[in-house]
């Protein structure tokens, strides 16, 4: 079977199995989504939510975050991993947005760019890689068709054989995005991520994948070897 056709068949099965279309979990503006994404690196979702909420309690607007002493910001986000790294990184990201956008502290203008242009703009910010840029575009109210690939999504794609076994998140994201039709909108691309992610969480576990109950085992390289 053609690899792209296999990828799309798997995508369709997973989206159907887990109940697409999925309701977006965030309604944040893209700048707020950027801050949340920077907080979330190597941090559990529940901890990120708590830290983001605490951040907004201490600093009601992003200008205050820029102007705050870094140690005070670090204290506000102390629950996340590496707050001493993330605090100055968030401040620098906000400064860069303010200086480069020409529109103050807003990323709403990204809606006027292509996905690739918007990703390039974001990835010029120190600490922003492919996963973060995709999250800002896909998860925020922009709802742009940028494919997010997390560790669950990556594991499923590697086992199935859609990407090489040692592919990085960035490389895998590029390969998996290329399989998707160019006319898919933000919701459909979001659904693709959610389907793969949920399959990784519920069936294709890191240890002991449940191949016997996998809905795509006939299309999976790993399952064929078992």
From TrEMBL:
<dbReference type="Pfam" id="PF00730">
    <property type="entry name" value="HhH-GPD"/>
</dbReference>
<dbReference type="InterPro" id="IPR023170">
    <property type="entry name" value="HhH_base_excis_C"/>
</dbReference>
<dbReference type="InterPro" id="IPR011257">
    <property type="entry name" value="DNA_glycosylase"/>
</dbReference>
<keyword id="KW-0378">Hydrolase</keyword>
<keyword id="KW-0255">Endonuclease</keyword>
<dbReference type="GO" id="GO:0006284">
    <property type="term" value="P:base-excision repair"/>
</dbReference>
<protein>
    <submittedName>
        <fullName>Endonuclease-3</fullName>
    </submittedName>
</protein>
<dbReference type="InterPro" id="IPR003265">
    <property type="entry name" value="HhH-GPD_domain"/>
</dbReference>
<dbReference type="GO" id="GO:0004519">
    <property type="term" value="F:endonuclease activity"/>
</dbReference>
<feature type="domain" description="HhH-GPD">
    <location>
        <begin position="39"/>
        <end position="202"/>
    </location>
</feature>
<keyword id="KW-0540">Nuclease</keyword>
